[in-house]
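Incident log, entry 3
Record: Heat-shock protein (200 residues)
Problem: checksum mismatch between cached and fresh output.
Input:
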Amino acid sequence: MQPSRSQPARVSARSRVHAAFPRSRPSFAAMVSIMTIAFGSVLAGCAMPTHPDSAAPPTDPYNPAATQLLDDTQWQLASWANADGKTRPVPANPGVTPGADGEPITLNFSTQGGQRKTNGFSGCNRFTGTYDLSGGKLSFGPLASTRMACAPGPGSTLEQPFLQGLADIAKTGVQMQPPRQLQITLQNGDVMTFTQRAQP
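Fresh output:
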């Protein structure tokens, strides 16, 4: 009987690979770096992109004119800006004798008698007529005016452009915050701004 020979231990192919290329564990610092990069990528993906044109435009303080904002109110012309940005001098002395140069240009609205009527002072003469509001836009019917001789001054200079402007309105707005203002933009781009007068 022949003596038994010891059988060599079988070594698998996977064990040979592991022996040739031992697995190394990543260091703690490397793991922290990997997690930081991954977390930053997630945050970058969640960030909302901004567009240079996405900024909200400034709020227009003037609301479209409505009947409840203009009916039974009185206004005084405070400024007149031309389309090119230049301003026209306006009379603004309420203490002068009515009809004298320097008396403010005024625009009044009334609903007495069940009809919308307007009247005011145009710089030299008095005017009367009717008004209407449609779609936030103010419009006037034919205006009748006195025919007084006008002395030279800001009022007489503005009278004809003012009356013509009331016939060529492009846009109307009312600012509700004090001081309450009425802004009338004309077809030629001029802007007339009125301040509200106290009721007599």
